[in-house]
Design a protein that fits this description.
Layout: E1 7-9, H1 11-28, E2 33-40, H2 43-52, E3 58-70, E4 73-81, E5 91-99, H3 103-113, E6 119-127, E7 140-144, E8 151-152, E9 168-170
Parallel strand pairs: 2-3, 2-5, 5-6, 6-7
Antiparallel strand pairs: 1-9, 3-4, 8-9
Helix pairs in contact: 1-2
């Protein structure tokens, strides 16, 4: 499968960064109750690995299914499948696979902020600032990718292919 998707970050590099982020989040939320809001489907893999490694933090889990992609392009619209979980009074960590244009997470951020959480932060596998259309910063980022490259693996998919790969690869595009 790696021939179809050349490796950008190995499975070992991904797991190393997850462990580093878990240690940082554990230190930041030591002794606190943290609501981890995992964005499905892509954030599922990262979320499962991340929350299992949190130490000294009381973790509650919620899930939200968002859609903003059609094929390889984002619509920039936030399409939520079902109601958003209640986050009022919680320290909230949104766990997602990727932020690129910033539009989807910005819309989610506003919707969650309106509920009055104690705090609202983001843990992201890949931050693709090259595609940013509006400012959006994430507190916990595994990898910064400067190139405008379509990625696959570790939750990210290419039209429902490659999501379960343990590494992060690039999608070859024909010129």
């Amino acid at each position: 499968m790696s021939e179809a998707y050349p490796i950008l970050f190995s499975a070992e590099a991904v797991q190393e960064r997850v462990a580093e982020l878990a240690a940082q989040i554990s230190a930041d939320y030591a002794g606190k109750r943290l609501l981890c809001l995992v964005v499905l489907r892509g954030g599922f893999f990262f979320g499962a690995d991340l929350v299992r490694q949190l130490k000294g933090v009381e973790v509650e889990l919620e899930f939200v299914k968002l859609a903003s992609y059609t094929g390889r392009e984002t619509s920039g619209r936030l399409l939520v499948s079902g109601p958003l979980p209640r986050v009022s009074g919680y320290d909230v960590l949104v766990i997602e696979d990727l932020v690129d244009t910033g539009l989807t997470l910005s819309n989610l951020h506003e919707a969650l902020l309106a509920q009055g959480p104690n705090s609202l932060r983001y843990a992201i596998v890949v931050d693709k600032k090259a595609r940013r259309k509006i400012p959006f910063e994430c507190e916990y980022v595994a990898f910064d990718v400067q190139a405008d490259t379509f990625l696959v693996g570790y939750g990210m998919d290419d039209q429902n292919k490659g999501r379960t790969l343990p590494y992060i690869g690039t999608v070859k595009t024909s010129a």
